[in-house]
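Exercise: predict the fold of this chain.
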Amino acid sequence: MVAIFAFILTRGSSQDPPADGLRLGSGADVGAAGPAAPASSSEPNTTKADRNPPASAKSAPRATKPQVSTPPVDTGPVSPKFRPGQWIVVLEKYTADVGDAEKAARDTATKLSKGGIPAKAMLVNGQYPGMVNSSWEPVTNTWFVYLGPGTTSKQVLNQCSDTRTQRLYSNPACPTYEPAVRAGG
């Protein structure tokens, strides 16, 4: 019986190598053999019907990390209401007729707000008598990124010159305005 078993092992009718990757009679003993690397082929993985599929073939459900979206930053109303005695400081101006000024202003305000600076964006279209240009004309068609309102010019100026604000948005000039009060009067 041993002879028949040896004959089957060494001269069996199967031309395929044994399933465990070992060959008998190779002539060289290289020590213990590890598991054979699976042959890559385009054929699907086939297993015998009386066996369970290998653990690597079982598809385990993947735990997906839930997508966390941050809520949009509130950059303020387009036309906020100001009362006399309220002051703002302007960090940046974007002319409405050049590119997408609203997006640029809101993006700047969002960047600052995410950094802990309470910046807002608004469209200035002549509705604020205290916002005038150097010729004392009302500012129109301009998006402002601003801080405030505060109760004094000095209070909002201090917000602008604060090291946290300057670190996020370096702006040496911080013009202050009292939007609800007519300039010069």
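Check your answer against the key: The helical segments are 2-11, 101-114, 153-161, 163-168.
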